[in-house]
């Protein structure tokens, strides 16, 4: 082996990480990323923002599914025996058009659910986030804010999405923390548009 060959091999050996070194670096980077995200999610504003974006995504998925299966899909915030105060929601595709969840209809909605509460498969709000908007008198557009955090037509605790892409009109309010709490809202409109709003300094600001 020539001197040049020895030098090339030395450079190749020293140019990169070994597999154990690479795994250690990835673990360190992953740990720092998780610490950064956990720190961020300690903020009531960030927890509420995440909850609002997750709910808006659930609404969009429900709307797309309603169009796909040609039946209404409901996102339900009071799936019996649970109530809005439990901080969860579920969804079902109303395949028999009776406005209530029946066998197989939850799975037919294809909404991403992650927990079981009181025998119901549900999506839970992030820790510390609740339905409601304490201290807020009016919602976006001057709408009424109810104590349970829901303001859908007919006093319903569920949002409906329909095969033509339209939806039931209403707003879901989310909050976390106190003095003052961080407050966000997710709205559905009759044409099926979905909006997110945040509240600060006595004003609503549309975010999407």
Structure in words:
The structure is a single chain. This protein folds into two domains: 3-37, no CATH class; 44-206, 3-Layer(bab) Sandwich (minor pseudopilin epsh fold). The strands form two sheets. A five-stranded antiparallel beta sheet has the order 3-4-2-1-6. It has a five-stranded antiparallel beta sheet with strand order 5-7-8-9-10, covered by helices on one side. It has helices spanning 3-15, 19-41, 44-69, 105-109, and strands at 73-76, 88-93, 115-117, 120-124, 129-131, 158-161, 170-176, 182-188, 194-200, 203-206. By secondary structure, the protein is α+β, with helices and mostly antiparallel strands. It has four helices and ten strands, in the order αααββαββββββββ. The radius of gyration is 24 Å and the shape is globular.
Quick structural summary:
With 208 residues, this protein is of the alpha+beta class.
What's the SSE blueprint?
Elements: H1 3-15, H2 19-41, H3 44-69, E1 73-76, E2 88-93, H4 105-109, E3 115-117, E4 120-124, E5 129-131, E6 158-161, E7 170-176, E8 182-188, E9 194-200, E10 203-206
Antiparallel strand pairs: 1-2, 1-6, 2-4, 3-4, 5-7, 7-8, 8-9, 9-10
Which segments are poorly predicted (pLDDT under 50) over 5 or more consecutive residues? 10-17, 32-36
Rounded to an integer in angstroms, the radius of gyration calculated over CA atoms is 24 Å
Give the second-level CATH assignment, the architecture of the largest domain: 3-Layer(bab) Sandwich
CATH homologous group name of the largest domain: minor pseudopilin epsh domain
Structural class by sheet pairing and helices: alpha+beta
Total discrete domains: 2
Strands across the major sheet, in which order? 3-4-2-1-6
Shape field: globular
Beta-strand proportion? 15-25%
What is the helix fraction of residues, given as a range? 25-40%
Could you give a short account of the major beta sheet?
5 strands, antiparallel
Number of distinct beta strands: 10
SSE order: HHHEEHEEEEEEEE
